[in-house]
Design a protein that fits this description.
alpha+beta; two-stranded antiparallel ribbon; 7 strands
């Protein structure tokens, strides 16, 4: 119910965001502390290409996005498979991604997965199936931050969800 309310607030512009310049690596580290217990059966690695990537974000909401994306990867990835969480600077944005070695998504459904109540009819690695709000919530939060989110199939197999966030300007207070 809370996810549905958050999506509604984001889409109608009533979501209260607490934007602060934060390191994306801190948000990733926080998300990794709150994963589904099944995550321990997967090989989770980080690929942080920029040490001090400062992003303008509501960190609690971005941590929630990361938790949803990583737990989704855990859900659809077999035991002992690798899940990569990465981030790098790209022009005036931070590009963040979660890539797994699962079965990927059926061709042509890469955009549908972000629609409310859409679920993949195929069974996940652990036979659990959600109600289709997690990725819709992620899309709403990322769009409220002025970013974009998308999914593509990874090669040779798996799925990769990527999103962008605006980088924070570093103010130079020295004179």
């Amino acid at each position: 119910m809370e996810n549905l309310l958050t999506i509604t607030r984001a889409e109608n512009g009533t979501m209260k965001l607490n934007f602060q310049p934060e390191l994306i690596s801190d948000a990733i580290e926080e998300a990794l502390r709150h994963l589904d217990p099944n995550a321990a059966k997967r090989q989770i690695v980080t690929d942080l290409r920029d040490d001090l990537l400062l992003v303008k974000m509501d960190s609690a909401l971005i941590v929630q996005v990361l938790i949803n994306l990583i737990n989704n990867a855990v859900k659809y990835t077999p035991d002992d498979a690798k899940i990569t969480i990465g981030a790098k600077a790209k022009e005036n944005t931070a590009l963040v991604w979660v890539e797994d070695e699962g079965q990927g998504v059926p061709e042509g459904t890469e955009d549908k997965v972000f629609e409310m109540f859409y679920t993949d009819a195929r069974h996940s690695a652990d036979s659990r199936r959600g109600i289709g709000l997690g990725l819709a919530l992620c899309r709403s939060i990322i769009q409220a931050h002025g970013g974009e989110i998308w999914m593509m199939n990874a090669r040779p197999h798996g799925a990769k969800v990527s999103f962008t966030l605006p980088v924070a300007e570093v103010k130079d207070y020295e004179q």
